Input
Amino acid sequence: MRHILLSGLLLLSLSSHCLASSAPDPQSIGKLLTQNLLQREHMIYPERGLHYAEACAALGALWWAEAAGDKALQQQLIQRYRVLLDNENPLVNREPHVDQAVIGIIPLEIFRQTRDKAQLEQGLSFVKEQWQHPRPDGLTSQTRWWIDDMYMVGILQMQAWRATNNTLYRDRAADFVLAYLKKLQQANGLFLHGPEAEIYWGRGNGWVAVALAELLAGLPTDDPRQPEIHQAYTQMMQTLLRLQSDNGMWRQILDNPYAWAESSGSAMFAYAMALGLRQGFLKGDEYQVAVDKAWLALRAHLDPSGNLREVGVGTGQSQDPHYYLDRDRVKGDFHGQAPMLWLVRERMLASKHP
Output
């Protein structure tokens, strides 16, 4: 009987090992996600303009193609977004708004990879317009004090710095993020959705986590703003560590134990932790465990076509928790595809430089 039991355990162990070893690797998943993006129609606002969620997915796909050395998909992505060079194209909206300006991250990334000056000029046009009429406090006139602004404004300015090495843009991002931290971060390190919603919404906090990680990845340690931003980031990561579900995911409302597991925020948190670990501004084995758990859970949420399941639809502000809990859950939405691409690329880079 004991022999039979041990044999069964051995078979179970071998089976689990085979399943793990045969699971798609980050490079394969990144290719699947990128092909998924290329096969779609553009995501456009009802009025006009490329949706910010697709812009964020495009950035992730371009990052992945470069890291993977996939020249064919890189060229297909560049061709897909060449239309953004045409200001008369319906995909280009010059309305002075964070959600419209952020599409500048695409031409800036294409320039960084190709050195095409036309792409640089177009990308910087969005960057410069964002600070064309600054407020008395020096922040962009697009400031709204919504937590997702920290990513939308921050990533555009950081992309400009990456493309040009002009520290003016990095300084703008740092000052902007720091102002939002001082105004919006709570004692537990998390962020309320906004002044009309005292709710710890998952994806909203995900945008913040990624904004902080992207900024810290480029900010010198001797920058006078770095300690405060780093402290805010680590405080947030510590709380997120405690709020991660046993299944590896984070919830639609982070501190509500009855809320459903939501994929886009989970991918954002995993990415923010993974980037911090690789760059060295986040320490602790427990964070790698959290990232690995989230990765396995998110990988299981992908369908065979590369659509991420359990993504909450776009969400306004409300004081009623049921408003968030009752939101539709969809698959393949770019709000989820984007951070999954960021995370896949980060997993690849981490495997190359352990």
